[in-house]
Amino acid sequence: MLDVNQLSAGYGGIPVLRDISLSIAKGESVGILGHNGMGKTTLLRCLIGALRPSAGRVQLEGRDVTAAAPNVRARLGMTYVPQGREIFPALSAMDNLRMGLVKTGERGMETIEGLLQDFPRLKPLLERPGGSLSGGEQQLLALARALAGKPSLLLLDEPTEGIQPSIIEEIADTLAALRAKLALTIVLVEQNLEFIAAVSQRVLVIKRGQLGGEVPREHLTDIELMSQYTGVHA
Ligand SMILES: Nc1ncnc2c1ncn2[C@@H]1O[C@H](COP(=O)(O)OP(=O)(O)OP(=O)(O)O)[C@@H](O)[C@H]1O
Ligand SMILES: [Mg+2]
Question: Is residue 30 in a domain?
Fold first, then answer.
């Protein structure tokens, strides 16, 4: 589904990512674990086409999209929920969802009603301004909006940031259910160990701009062991 080859990127000549290579199969859910400033958002920005890598290649379903604009990648099935969610605070939750349809030009209500089955918490909130929802509700809204475009590849940037624990669990459950139902491929960057372990089949670790390997599967269920990979103790 997604192949990244020896990708490097930075800002104004200052390198941030170095020699990143990864391969993600269709339907797979892959977490990329890393602390603040390690280059997680920079990597996602290269994947969606918001930042041009200084070297390397990005392929989507075998097609080289390294130079493709974000809207081209979106048409090919890629969608992105940015860090901080970026919902429209002045628009109602419903209008935020409708914005998700713009990309595909799909005629709307059926898609939205279908989606809301998987986001019951949003149903009573639809008339409220997006900005009046809690952080967790906004994250669910951003996720639903991204899914309204019927993507095949979902990129998530720290969905748990600033969200209370009870709703973090709900987001993890929602993602797991949607992944199974829609055969979604998911790339998640996170620093929340429990969440990344709950949502990902594989977890890669990004440290100072480089991928430092994969967390062994048997360690995903042991938060103590997982924390050793994040660099806190390294
Ligand atoms: N637009 C920019 N211009 C210059 N430097 C930037 C820019 N965006 C990010 N950086 C720098 O690149 C490095 C990686 O940033 P990035 O946002 O990718 O990290 P991150 O892992 O997503 O961090 P966080 O967990 O805080 O979101 C940091 O040193 C950051 O200061
Ligand atoms: Mg970030």
Answer: yes
